[in-house]
Amino acid sequence: MIREGRRRARTLRPRTVRSQVTWTAAGLVAVVLVLSAFGLVAAQQRVLTHGIDEALIQRADNIQQDVVRGTFGRRLPNEGGDPEDSFMQLLDADGSVVAVTDNATGLPTAARPLRPGANQVVATVSDVPLSNGDFRVLARSLGGTASGPATLVVAKNLDDVNESVSILTRSLAVAIPVVTGLLALLVWWLTGRVLRPVESIRREVASIEGHELHRRVPAPGSEDEIARLASTMNEMLDRVQEATDRQRRFVADASHELRGPLTRLRSSLEVTIAHPDGVDAVSLSRELLGDAVELQKLVDDLLFLARSESGSLEVPHQPVDLDDLVLEEAQRLRDRGSVRVDVSAVSAARTWGSSDQLTRAVRNLSSNAERHAARCVSFELREVDGRCELVVADDGPGIAPEHRELVFTRFTRLDGARSRDAGGSGLGLAIVRDIVIRHDGTVGVVEHAGSGARFVVDLPRAE
Predict the structure, then answer these.
(1) CB 287 within 8 A of CB 295
(2) pLDDT in tens, 443-462
(3) Which of 130-144, 225-239, 364-378 has the highest mean pLDDT?
(4) Is the Cβ–Cβ distance between 136 and 49 less than 8 Å?
(5) Does the pLDDT of residue 75 top 70, yes or no?
(6) How far is CA 273 from the centre of its chain?
(7) Which of 27, 133, 408, 439 could form a disulfide with 433 if both were Cys (CB 3.0 to 4.6 A apart)?
(8) What is the structure's pLDDT at 255?
(9) Are strands 135-141 and 149-157 parallel, antiparallel or unpaired?
(10) Are 447 and 376 in contact (CB under 8 A)?
């Protein structure tokens, strides 16, 4: 039963913004109009009743003067036109009727007993047998004794008040639903007109296929929220197209890079199969091992970049001694013996992050410097203004100013280092920038007085 009730509630609930706004606006207006109608009816009844009370007080004042002068008999003058509209009574101290108007002969006392100390009371009385309507009755003490009138009663029918209030109530009962319905139609039309551009944006986005990312949603010429929504949607499509294009280029470049080692492996194996007696097994194994190592390094780089883009590559918040990493890498270069290594400007520095990732970044920078150096690779490390500054420089041909950002792009090899043997896979510096950015740092190629390239890494210092 509970599930069935929830299902029905979901079915009855408005499903569109247009219907929700319309129902909400119509409901709020209906509530406001109903509350206003109750207030208006109550105010009209109070005003009309107050007017009758003023008339009763005026009549009581006139009759009281006659009573004081003693100019009254058993009959009182009825100033109302309709015999059932009003009447008066004079009561003695015992509450017996002393004098009445002609239309009130034989009526019981219409006044309630006056409260002690009360000089005048005005109240509505329903049990007057003169008519079926209510009467507004004023009872005023005259201070008389048992031998004379003690209380004056003046009464007037409330039929006119009740009829006026009833007409107003019926008019409001008809007007409120009509006004609410017209307002609901107006809100429905206005909401549809306002949301029409949103629907156009939705249809356009829904129709964009994977190969049509160049399409954009229509943007209205205004500067309202709809225009900002369209602008935001187009900016999102720009980012999606850029990411898709970058992914496609990445896949194409990765395929191209993998094809070279695989082609060499296949060619070597085909030659070995075709001429088994003319192949040196040791030389072939070394050649195949080199290609396998190159493939492994390329696959590792691709896997690192893929994990980085997917967000699964986390950076732990732990202290890392950068000077230890730099000195270990410098020793590795010395052991290789291809270049001279200078670490005279390396001092102690500590940052936060991942030791493995920073080791990879330092190694990629040093390998790049070794590949392009003529004779020497130098390392510098210092702490400056709460930051760690690492410099890796070489004395090679250097990098032209227009290429200093391009070298950090994936699969980029400058013209002077186009071959795979000289230029690597083109992923090393891209990985360096990715790691440094993840560690809240920056990396770039800066100008310097000597020859060669000078890479500067700036990282936060661990307090």
Answers:
(1) no
(2) 999 877 677 899 999 999 98
(3) 364-378
(4) yes
(5) no
(6) 67
(7) 408
(8) 79
(9) antiparallel
(10) no
Question: How far apart (Å, rounded) are the C-alpha atoms in residues 117 and 141?
Answer: 10
**And the tokens for 66?**
């006659």
- For residue 318, CA distances in Å to 55, 324, 353, 462 come to 93, 15, 5, 9
Dist. CA 76–CA 102, nearest whole Å: 7
Please say whether the beta carbons of 176 and 37 come within 8 A.
Answer: yes
Confidence of residue 306 (pLDDT cuts 50, 70, 90): confident
The CA distance from 260 to 421, in Å, is 12
- pLDDT for res 176: 94
Beta carbons within 10 angstroms of residue 259's beta carbon: 10
- pLDDT tens string 80-108: 555 567 888 888 777 777 787 877 676 77
Chain segment 3-37, per-residue pLDDT in tens: 665 555 555 456 788 889 899 999 999 999 999 99
**In sequence order, which residues have a C-beta less than 8 Å from that of residue 323 and are 6 or more positions away?**
346, 347, 348, 349, 381
Confidence band (pLDDT; 50, 70, 90) for 44? Answer: very high
Q: Can you tell me the distance from the alpha carbon of 363 to that of 336, in angstroms, rounded to the nearest whole number?
A: 13
Query: Among candidates 353, 349, 348, which has minimal Cα distance to 318?
Result: 353
CB 377 within 8 A of CB 450: no
Instruction: Dump pLDDT digits (tens) for 160-189.
Output: 888 999 999 999 999 999 999 999 999 999
User: Do the beta carbons of residue 268 and residue 292 sit within 8 Å?
Assistant: no
| CA gap 315, 361 in Å, rounded | 13
Q: Between β-strands 97-101 and 75-76, what pairing exists: parallel, antiparallel or unpaired?
A: parallel
User: If you search the block for the tokens 């551009």, which residue do you land on?
Assistant: 197
pLDDT band at 72 (very low <50, low <70, confident <90, very high): low
Residues 6 or more apart whose Cβ sits within 8 Å of residue 21: 187, 191
Distance between alpha carbon 232 and the CA centroid of its chain, in Å?
A: 14
CA distance 361 to 388: 15
Residue 146 has pLDDT above 70, yes or no: no
